């Protein structure tokens, strides 16, 4: 398969690119990094990217920003930013991709465990991740027979210090283990699935 990994130079994306490259032709996408430049916040950029690459078999998204702030400090701009970037950015990539790519295309999106577990400062991320899960289930139904859409929901990545304080007490998981869920979402005949990959032991 010819697979574009948007965010393929990031912490999770790098491991996904390495794993998928053993079996597939992989292109790396990003705003400025990689082989294919695309900005998931910009519908015009997304349309241009699909027009330039109509032969993609799959698009994996391992990108998406959300603000982490206490609820009392989240501004209107913060909410708009999180919704526009991580939620609508991935929605746009599926909606536009379904129009441009050939039948059988596969989309694999990224959410995170804050859909199910909650931390201080994570309310925007929880909203966005839950929205992505609902979107994937609904889009998979509408795109049945035309395209597959799945979602990987990772826990905090081992060694990524950026979120370590906010996720104090949570078990982290290696990016290599997380990458296997993307391979599974791509390779197995699944659609509308949320593949959770986190090491919670308290449930
Ligand atoms: N790290 C974690 O512990 C963790 C845990 C659970 C879930 N997640 C989720 O997993 C996803 C990836 O996280 P990460 O930590 O691996 O990311 P990261 O290391 O911060 O890398 C982000 C990647 O996305 C690309 N990117 C950023 N903005 C973009 C845009 N507007 N359009 C296209 N590409 C863009 C960047 O490349 P350019 O700079 O070239 O654009 C970069 O390659 C995020 O949605 C995050 O919420 C992360």
From TrEMBL:
<dbReference type="GO" id="GO:0016491">
    <property type="term" value="F:oxidoreductase activity"/>
</dbReference>
<dbReference type="InterPro" id="IPR002347">
    <property type="entry name" value="SDR_fam"/>
</dbReference>
<protein>
    <submittedName>
        <fullName>NADP-dependent 3-hydroxy acid dehydrogenase YdfG</fullName>
    </submittedName>
</protein>
<dbReference type="Pfam" id="PF13561">
    <property type="entry name" value="adh_short_C2"/>
</dbReference>
<dbReference type="InterPro" id="IPR051122">
    <property type="entry name" value="SDR_DHRS6-like"/>
</dbReference>
<keyword id="KW-0560">Oxidoreductase</keyword>
<comment type="similarity">
    <text>Belongs to the short-chain dehydrogenases/reductases (SDR) family.</text>
</comment>
<dbReference type="InterPro" id="IPR036291">
    <property type="entry name" value="NAD(P)-bd_dom_sf"/>
</dbReference>
